[in-house]
Specification:
single chain; 102 residues; alpha+beta; 3 helices; 10 strands
Length: 102
């Protein structure tokens, strides 16, 4: 008897032997994985595209963004916490470029 799974995103059947992927514990088909998900550049977790906390340069799950990144208050760029600049006159965070061009 063939084991048939159902994609929790689109509802299509996934036959045994076909590739499956997991997003937040849900099993999804290869088509949904290709079209609807990305891989976090920091932890390699598969996430839904609309949950991406990164930008056009880096894809981040919420946990990695919250633990290791912030956004520049000037331009909105995602910056690693180790590369963040601060001004003593305000509580804003800046990328290197915005900090030096203020």
């Amino acid at each position: 008897m063939e084991n048939i799974l159902t994609c929790s995103h689109c509802g299509n059947e996934i036959l045994s032997g076909e590739s499956t992927f997991t997003v937040h514990g849900d099993i999804i088909c290869e088509a949904c994985a290709d079209e609807e998900t990305i891989i976090c550049d920091r932890c390699n977790e598969r996430i839904w595209e609309d949950e991406d906390e990164g930008d056009e340069y880096v894809h981040l799950c919420a946990d990695c963004y919250n633990d290791h990144y912030t956004r520049c208050d000037e331009c909105g760029a995602v910056i690693h916490n180790d590369c963040t600049y601060y001004d003593d006159d305000d509580d804003n965070t800046y990328c290197e470029n915005c900090y030096h061009n203020r």
